[in-house]
Specification:
Helix content is about 40%, strand content about 20%. The chain contains eleven helices and ten strands. It has helices at about 5-10, 50-65, 80-85, 100-110, 145-155, 170-180, 195-205, 215-220, 270-285, 285-295, 305-325, and strands at about 40, 70-75, 95-100, 120-135, 160-165, 185-190, 210, 225-230, 255-265, 300. Helix 2 (about 50-65) links the parallel strand 1 and strand 2 (about 70-75). Helix 2 (about 50-65) packs across helix 9 and helix 4 (about 100-110) crosses helix 11. The longest helix has 22 residues, at about 305-325.
């Protein structure tokens, strides 16, 4: 059972999609794909989690496809700049974007005006990693479980601060989901990235954070922070002793991030199929699997239709949470 089918079976990811997949289109005669470098836009700065996971993928695609596959970091505006760049690129398979749950499922609900339509202007290619949102606390906080954290928050309403990578990101919304599910009040402190938020957590300026597991894995192993739960329905292979939110008593809290490759809308179907096939082959490579799991991520693959259906499900779920939490569009 491959990674994505396992996730589908255990987490119920797939539903009817929203994407209008284009009818098969032919590649122009004499223009075999690929015959020039492929640009993979990462809409965030170099060195961040999405960049770290994308570079080995690009390197192995380079080897598999026989042309240079170049990572192009287009950071800014919480991913909007890089996403717009690819949305407006030629639909020829030579400009791709690595998107995430934050940019594709949450951002459209948080930002009132985007320079692209998340469904109309992109074509799904393939999912390639998923990762839980990990709930951690400062070691000095007198809690060792989600139950104890909730009890403390109820006893001290609005006295616990939770940090995030910024307004409207997956870590922020995961915290809001905990507030709703547990009926507690905490103060959200947004940062410009999980790096500074993690530093303030370690320094004791924050009491807790949710973050993509790869961001916090080394801090957990070094005992600089205490892990309480993962936001997925199955435990992480990287932290097998850490319970899920369902095991902690909150099955309604499902919070995870994902990275996937998208192309501009109307990219010919044979090109999408070739890219999808090569990504699946790369992600099934034992070395790539080992690398992803070493970072705290789960290597997966999908068809374009499966990715589109998962995106729709996540889009609808997080839209409801944005509204329930009263997160205002910016």
């Amino acid at each position: 059972m491959n990674g994505l089918i396992r996730w589908a079976a255990l987490a119920g990811l797939f539903s009817a999609g929203t994407y209008a997949f284009a009818q098969p289109a032919s590649i122009p005669s004499g223009a075999a794909f690929p015959n020039k470098p492929i640009r993979v836009v990462v809409p965030f700065a170099a060195g961040g989690p999405i960049d770290i996971m994308t570079r080995p993928l690009a390197q192995r695609l380079n080897e598999a496809m026989g042309v240079a596959v170049l990572v192009d970091n287009r950071a800014g505006a919480n991913g909007i700049i890089g996403m717009e760049n690819v949305a407006k690129a030629a639909p020829d398979g030579y400009s791709l974007v690595v998107s995430s749950g934050g940019t594709h499922s949450i951002g459209p609900h948080v930002y009132s005006k985007l320079p692209y339509d998340i469904f109309r202007d992109f074509t799904p290619v393939s999912l390639f990693v998923t990762m839980p949102e990990l709930l951690v606390v400062h070691p000095a906080l007198p809690v060792k479980s989600v139950k104890e954290l909730v009890a403390l928050a109820r006893a001290r309403p609005n006295q616990l601060n939770f940090g995030s990578s910024g307004h409207g990101g997956t870590p922020h919304l995961a915290g809001e989901l905990l507030k709703i599910a547990a009926k507690i009040e905490m103060v959200h402190v947004p940062y410009k990235g999980m790096g500074p938020a993690t530093m303030d957590l370690i320094a004791g300026q924050l009491q807790l954070v949710f973050a993509d597991l790869p961001v916090l894995l080394q801090q957990v192993k070094a005992e600089k922070v205490r892990a309480l739960a993962v936001g997925t329905k199955i435990r992480s292979t990287s932290l097998p002793n850490v319970p899920t939110m369902a095991e902690a008593g909150y099955p309604q809290i499902e919070a995870y991030n994902w990275y996937a490759v998208f192309a501009p809308a109307n990219t010919p179907r044979p090109i999408i199929a070739r890219l999808n096939s090569e990504i699946a082959r790369v992600m099934s490579n034992p070395a790539m699997k080992s690398f992803a799991q070493g970072q705290g991520a789960e290597p997966v693959s999908s068809t374009p239709e499966e990715l589109g259906a998962m995106h729709k499900r996540e889009f609808e779920k997080w839209g409801g949470i944005v509204r329930a939490a009263g997160v205002k569009p910016e």
